[in-house]
Design brief:
- With 97 residues, the chain is α+β, with helices and mostly antiparallel strands.
- The chain has a domain at 4-17 and 45-96.
- It contains 3 helices and 8 strands; from the N terminus they run ββββββαβααβ.
- Helix 2 (59-69) packs across helix 3.
Length: 97
């Protein structure tokens, strides 16, 4: 099944947008968007996803990485990652091609 949420799919390439400061706070990633002046708590898994996007990366590769790290069903992992990326794209924190 090919999931496509908004403009992001398993075959999309995603990368961190410029202008964000990210800190590690007790195992969770917290980000400040300089452009928006807003804070975001990415959490532990969101932080792991964020870390994968330091360079342009296929969404499917991010999911493969998470599947190796966490005990989760692939379909659920795909849905959660795509939902999360859609939010980041909406907030202009991630660029998607």
């Amino acid at each position: 099944m090919m999931l496509n949420i908004g403009n992001v799919s398993l075959h999309s390439t995603v990368v961190q947008a410029k202008g964000n400061i990210v800190s590690d706070m007790g195992g969770e990633k917290v980000m400040l968007s300089i452009d928006k002046g807003k804070y975001y708590n990415l959490g532990e898994i969101g932080g792991a996803i964020w870390g994968q996007m330091q360079v342009p990366t296929l969404v499917s590769k991010i999911i493969d990485h998470l599947m190796a790290e966490y005990k989760v069903e692939r379909e659920e992992c795909e849905k959660q990652v795509l939902d999360f990326l859609k939010q980041l794209i909406h907030e202009e924190l991630v660029e998607c091609n």
